[in-house]
Design a protein that fits this description.
With about 220 residues, this protein is α/β, with parallel strands linked by helices. The protein is built from ten helices and five strands.
Length: about 220
Amino acid sequence: MAPVITVAVVDDDRMLLDGMRAWLGAVPELRLVATAATVGELLGTAVAELPYGPGPSGYVPPDVVLLDLVLRDGSAPADNIRRLLRSGSRVLMISTVPDRSRIIEALRAGADGYLTKDNDLPTLVAAVLDIAAGRSAHSAELAFACAHDTSPARPRLSPRERQVLLDYASGMTLKAAARRAGITIHTAKDYLDRVKAKYQQAGRPTYTKLDLARRVREDSLDGG
């Protein structure tokens, strides 16, 4: 039997929190373990009922946190995302509107997906399952924002640079990525070096294979 995925929700809309309790309570593979109006409130919560118990601070990070983009406490979304990531959770942003610039900012901060609140339960569950499995949660909002992202922080990659990057970052060896692209391993390495140089120029240094995989996720390059 697959382990149950633990979920927390940070939102200052009490009606939404009540709705999430009802929604997620009907999904056997997910378990809602905490709700809070702010990230600070969540991180100060002891979730002692989890099977493996709380950590030294009394807080057990859930697998995935659903985080409202704009909270009434005035906290910056990027700061909230980073705090949750440091605590050990992955983050799915939820919002009332598909704000392109804010979606990109959330991805840059490390969020694993973005959904508007008008999505249905199956879409939400699929997104949570993807994120818990270590994948990004793709959505129409996210794809649109990334497709129209022209910020200097997002390098313009050629089709061949993108292909080699995606194959290599997905786990292929450089030799296998080169073979799939129909080029020599030296040419494939040249493409990767160009990709790294472009990210360096954009102020986002990228040195290792893990760094490359992170850039693919941040820029939703594998989202179609």
